Amino acid sequence: MGGGELPGLLVNEIGGIHGILHGHVALLKKHFYLITMKEFLENRKHMSKKVQAIYLWWHKPIINRELLQSLPNLKVIANSGVGMDHLDLKLVASFGVKMANAPYAVSSSTADTGMALLLASARRLVEGMEYSEADLLGVEVTGATVGIIGMGSIGYKIALRAKAFEMNILYHNRTRRKEQEEQAVGATYCEKIDSLLQQADFVMVVVSLTPQTHKLIGKREMELMKPTATLINISRGAVVDQEALVTALQTGVIRAAALDVTYPEPLPRDHTLLKLKNVIITPHLGIKTDKATYMVTEEAVENILAALNGLPIPSEL
Amino acid sequence: MGGGELPGLLVNEIGGIHGILHGHVALLKKHFYLITMKEFLENRKHMSKKVQAIYLWWHKPIINRELLQSLPNLKVIANSGVGMDHLDLKLVASFGVKMANAPYAVSSSTADTGMALLLASARRLVEGYHVATSPGMEYSEADLLGVEVTGATVGIIGMGSIGYKIALRAKAFEMNILYHNRTRRKEQEEQAVGATYCEKIDSLLQQADFVMVVVSLTPQTHKLIGKREMELMKPTATLINISRGAVVDQEALVTALQTGVIRAAALDVTYPEPLPRDHTLLKLKNVIITPHLGIKTDKATYMVTEEAVENILAALNGLPIPSEVLPS
């Protein structure tokens, strides 16, 4: 048990399906005394005072009032990744606990995932592996129009990549980017999302999940899209109305979809989306590379150490 | 039957698995009297004199001495796509028949295929798809961890127009670009994509995280990537082949993939094409094989036919052929 002098860091588990990656343990143990939820629950009395920080890996452990109440010395919760929709930010703040995410490691890898899905869908890569004798004509990527909904750092990196494919780039965002930023990627601002939806061959959804973006892409939006268009979602499943999507795909309202995110995640095995030929679904590949995941943990460590030392937290929310 | 005034164009078939796409027929019929191989064989005597041009779609019909001898008025063979390795160029030329390929339509779409395969392999997209859609698949995150594309090193073997377009795309992913080619590109061209020339292929193989093979198939490039080359590659590296299957030693590749000599491979081309269904390559988890997607988009295939029409019309009118291919 021990615990010695290093601050206690609570994690869900190590290894297994959703646990901290084994390759990251050494880095964490260098700075913290690692406590898994199992160890915590088996020895609450002893462990509860030791926990000064929590490192969330794929949204676990679940942060609720009960947990927060049982950790009197908790100072900071560090998130792996950039989405914070799984956290009740007000609740956490009410306990005087700080929160941080990991935006820097995330953007390139997620942009790469978005491009991988766009290309795989357009060129019918997955179908090609499954049905090699079928007529598998895809749609052209080079020179096509991509409409990026959400032009934060990930959306912008997608624009940089799309430009190299000579794509025509439209974007829709709460706020407009600076002119130099637009010009650097040749992006045209669409103040109204409808305009983007009507013109795009590929609609790339790259927004955070908020009450405003919940079911942002529904029946109305899909019907505005071209019947030859492809929808790619790398945000959160709930940004797209999944039932409307099933209908749109089955009736040819849109050509195809590629989803790295769904709700729930994963989908139940009998869900219609899993049976449609014109859908690619991937299990939240997002930032799942050796390098990006390690950078996320490095960022989290930096945020946690800053919080514990009373210094400004680099990626505080 | 007719045949009227339009020159006869021989094609393998219309529609079906490897036939001329239905969407292209109107364009061809605007300029030519279309004759399928079936029609030709059923009525050789009448048809043989009408054929002035052949349009090859996916290497068919097969051009051999017998066919060439039976077409006295054949002036030109137009190829769909850019590879000419399926043709005996000297034989065709010996009959006074000209040949043309379709390089312009091909390069962007093939470069896109190369990038699609690179990304799919690196990010384990196909494995992920199976996990996401198959019943009862438990997996740990560590099992599906991919390798980073952004900032990695790509080594492009063959820096023709397709290879160069790959370099342009790779640059946007902040990749470090090495290339190996028979001849070095101009300095401005290298600088525009930030590419470093590797005079020796070994140097490229030792440094690259992704080896992208984009050469024509010639006697010199046959089995260009074999056991020796794969052993020079990093064990974390990925091999992507969008050239021709025979450029890679397939047996050596199977061994390399099974023993971890390289991390993974993505092949849009094999030999034969398609592979027999019991081939080992089809069973390995760390291989993606696609059925020669190359330029298979609605737009690119149509552009190929447009290019072919232009080449054929030039030949029939005694004008310079835009994309003539001469026997080397």
From TrEMBL, chain A:
Oxidoreductase is among the record's keywords: yes
UniProt cross-references to SUPFAM superfamilies, sorted A to Z: Formate/glycerate dehydrogenase catalytic domain-like (SSF52283), NAD(P)-binding Rossmann-fold domains (SSF51735)
Keyword Oxidoreductase set for record: yes
Gene3D superfamilies documented for this protein: NAD(P)-binding Rossmann-like Domain
Start and end residues of each D-isomer specific 2-hydroxyacid dehydrogenase NAD-binding domain: 122-286
Matches recorded under InterPro entries: D-isomer_2-hydroxyacid_DH, D-isomer_2_OHA_DH_cat_dom, D-isomer_DH_CS1, D-isomer_DH_NAD-bd, NAD(P)-bd_dom_sf
Positions of the D-isomer specific 2-hydroxyacid dehydrogenase catalytic domain: 25-314
A Gene Ontology term for the protein's cellular component: cytosol
Full protein name: Glyoxylate reductase/hydroxypyruvate reductase
Organism per entry: Bubo bubo
Source lineage: Eukaryota, Metazoa, Chordata, Craniata, Vertebrata
UniProtKB/TrEMBL annotation, chain B:
Entry's Gene Ontology molecular function annotations: glyoxylate reductase (NADPH) activity; hydroxypyruvate reductase [NAD(P)H] activity; NAD binding
Keywords: Oxidoreductase
Domain D-isomer specific 2-hydroxyacid dehydrogenase NAD-binding: 115-294
Highest taxon of source: Eukaryota
Gene Ontology CC entries for this record: cytosol
Entries under Pfam families matching the protein: 2-Hacid_dh, 2-Hacid_dh_C
Residue ranges of every copy of the D-isomer specific 2-hydroxyacid dehydrogenase catalytic domain listed in the record: 25-325
Chain ranges passing through the membrane: none
Similarity section: Belongs to the D-isomer specific 2-hydroxyacid dehydrogenase family.
Protein name as catalogued: Glyoxylate reductase/hydroxypyruvate reductase
Lineage, broadest ranks: Eukaryota, Metazoa, Chordata, Craniata, Vertebrata
